[in-house]
Amino acid sequence: MDSSCIDIKGLTLTDLAEMLRRWGKEKFRARQIVKWVYVRGATSFDEMTDLSKSLRTELSQRLMISDWSPEQVERSHDGTCKYLFRLDDGETVETVRIPMEGERATLCVSTQVGCAMQCQFCLTGTFGLTRNLRSEEIVNQVCAALKEGPVNNIVLMGMGEPLHNLDNVIKALEILYLDDGLGYGSRKVTLSTSGLVPQMAELGRRITVNLAVSLNATTDTVRDQLMPINRRYPLAQLLQACREFPLKPRQKITFEYILIRDVNDSLADAKRLVKLLHGIKAKINLIPYNEHPGSDYKSPISEQVEAFQTYLLSRQVVAIRRASKGRDISAACGQLKGKANDSPQQGDEVR
Ligand code: SAH
Ligand code: SF4
Description:
alpha/beta; DNA polymerase, domain 1; TIM Barrel; two-stranded parallel ribbon; 32% helix; 19% strand; binds iron/sulfur cluster
């Protein structure tokens, strides 16, 4: 395969149809090709037997079909699975499959190698940004995970800030949504942001997706400290952007709130949170902070989590407590670092 070829997994249906048109081919073949790639899992154009031999030859001269397999798979005792992928420039990204009720699973996908946002509680943030992932690198995490089992929901909550890589992320979503391809409905996909206000508006204008916002504090003083992005877009601006974000009837914005002991877990915080979210169609995910070496922050005591949640519920605010899964394999929220793990834990399957 010629590496100078364009990767088909980074093309939307419109891109592909337009290319075919430019090459003097029938545009409608695009749908057929998409189906071969995403539904039948074709890895070469030769397999596409309902296309003419000459079209197949031409396609294989101009396009390539990338096909990922994880370099390493770690399985947690709770069923969570972490995949490590090696990219063509030697960098790595991690993707996490989280088992849900029944046979269902949610896939947590990365959008960047590292992250530039420098949130103080997040391991990914401590390494800085190496580079954006291309659309095909985002799509391929899903394609590779699908070879290992079903993926019902997709969350862009792995490494990276999706809105800091907006164009590639939007294109990847368009590809994941393709009717004749993977066919994920926009209700099945959630994008989580630390709060890049102008990009939130642009996202809402350009594509439909569920929005999650990592809030994590109820005052600018605390949020400035935890999440430096707040110095640029403080709480009032962030919440205004949430109010303006287009929502379907019955759709809500998810607010992620990591509870960190003695930092943001007081009852006063819970009260402020209710006030801040007043008038916004919101649900809150309460996530006890996952400790990691190199950070002094501590997990909250469970009574505090309980009290926090009880207060929110008493004010008719939807608040779900989320225990992060996969902690024993460093697959939980904020623990992804994208470096090959040289000493996997005993009992974990690694290949
Ligand atoms: N950059 C995006 C998406 C990836 S981070 C964002 O920040 O929203 C995914 C989630 O993990 C965020 O909600 C973040 O607040 C949370 N997180 C980061 N570090 C964590 C930690 N140590 N414990 C628990 N959650 C953490
Ligand atoms: Fe980046 Fe999100 Fe981690 Fe902040 S919480 S450093 S935005 S990945």
